[in-house]
UniProtKB/TrEMBL annotation:
<feature type="transmembrane region" description="Helical">
    <location>
        <begin position="149"/>
        <end position="167"/>
    </location>
</feature>
<dbReference type="GO" id="GO:0016020">
    <property type="term" value="C:membrane"/>
</dbReference>
<feature type="transmembrane region" description="Helical">
    <location>
        <begin position="33"/>
        <end position="54"/>
    </location>
</feature>
<protein>
    <submittedName>
        <fullName>EamA family transporter</fullName>
    </submittedName>
</protein>
<dbReference type="Pfam" id="PF00892">
    <property type="entry name" value="EamA"/>
</dbReference>
<feature type="transmembrane region" description="Helical">
    <location>
        <begin position="66"/>
        <end position="86"/>
    </location>
</feature>
<feature type="transmembrane region" description="Helical">
    <location>
        <begin position="123"/>
        <end position="143"/>
    </location>
</feature>
<feature type="transmembrane region" description="Helical">
    <location>
        <begin position="208"/>
        <end position="225"/>
    </location>
</feature>
<feature type="transmembrane region" description="Helical">
    <location>
        <begin position="237"/>
        <end position="256"/>
    </location>
</feature>
<dbReference type="InterPro" id="IPR000620">
    <property type="entry name" value="EamA_dom"/>
</dbReference>
<keyword id="KW-1133">Transmembrane helix</keyword>
<dbReference type="InterPro" id="IPR037185">
    <property type="entry name" value="EmrE-like"/>
</dbReference>
<feature type="transmembrane region" description="Helical">
    <location>
        <begin position="7"/>
        <end position="27"/>
    </location>
</feature>
<keyword id="KW-0812">Transmembrane</keyword>
<feature type="transmembrane region" description="Helical">
    <location>
        <begin position="179"/>
        <end position="196"/>
    </location>
</feature>
<feature type="domain" description="EamA">
    <location>
        <begin position="9"/>
        <end position="136"/>
    </location>
</feature>
<keyword id="KW-0472">Membrane</keyword>
């Protein structure tokens, strides 16, 4: 797979990720149940993909690889839980814009933990993202649902940044489908003990939405993201996936009439503009 193919995969993943917040609104159950159902359907879809390809689930990993898969599964669990909390409290636009900060977190993680050189463009990313978040914040008050939702969204972005960096640096040599399947399986195992009593509350419509969320917005998008990371730098893939708020805000506006404010649009423009600035091809 060439770089152009990897970029295409990352863009399709961004489109599918953008629909996640919409399902977070449509599904009327707890965030733990949404996350569990999403991961469970993703596991089912990825397992069927393995069968279609004539392959089987891999078990023989080194102790280090098992540790990386467990760690990435934990990061994925935290990312989804905090994101759906953000959607429930602050709405789709606020949650996805908070999540869109994760490229800035990737830059900071690479700089602080791995001593990677950070370019001037990437420092601009951090600055413009910060200004964008200030504009997006409905009010600087912890009594505001919008502010609390945004903080949960930012925490979700930080967890996702940890996931991207872990996948990029720790899963080389492991097939992308196997990685995605095991990471989603770990999410199921982590949450199952806390959701057993909630299965009786599940409706047919919620189950249908969870199936769409799990198979397309999770299994397929997760696979495409991990596959693209085999070619793309973690920061570049992250910047493409950060287009999610564009799709999410437009979909929420169309479906729910959630019209964004001018300040929110200005903040979103700064955040997404910074992402494009950094993702331009370097000389």
């Amino acid at each position: 797979m060439g770089r152009r193919g990897a970029l295409g995969m990352a863009h399709i993943a961004a489109l599918l990720f953008g629909l996640t917040g919409i399902f977070g609104v449509l599904i009327t159950t707890s965030v733990e149940m949404i996350t569990l159902g999403r991961a469970a359907f993703a596991v089912l879809g990825l397992w069927l993909l393995l069968l279609w390809q004539g392959r089987s689930l891999e078990w023989q990993f080194t102790l280090k690889e098992w540790g990386i898969l467990l760690l990435s599964g934990i990061f994925l669990t935290i990312h989804w839980l905090t994101f759906f909390i953000a959607v429930k409290i602050g709405g789709v636009a606020v949650a996805t814009l908070g999540f869109a900060t994760f490229p800035a977190f990737i830059t900071l993680i690479d700089y602080l933990l791995f001593k990677e050189q950070v370019t001037l463009r990437e420092w601009w990313l951090l600055l413009l993202t910060t200004i964008g978040l200030i504009l997006v914040t409905p009010s600087f008050s912890f009594a505001s649902d919008g502010t609390i939702g945004l903080l949960w969204g930012i925490l979700s972005g930080f967890a996702f940044a940890l996931l991207v960096v872990t996948n990029k640096r720790g899963t080389k040599g492991i097939d992308a489908v196997q990685i995605a399947l095991w990471q989603n399986g770990i999410v199921v195992l982590l949450l199952l003990p806390f959701t057993l009593m909630q299965f009786q509350e599940m409706t047919l419509l919620n189950g249908f939405y969870l199936a769409l969320l799990g198979i397309f917005c999770t299994g397929v998008s997760h696979y495409l993201l991990v596959k693209s990371l085999a070619v793309l730098e973690a920061r570049i893939a992250g910047m493409i996936i950060a287009l999610e708020p564009v799709y999410a805000i437009l979909a929420a506006w169309w479906l729910f009439g959630s019209q964004p404010t001018l300040a929110m649009l200005a903040g979103a423009t700064l955040i997404i503009g910074a992402i494009f600035l950094v993702s331009q091809k370097k000389n």
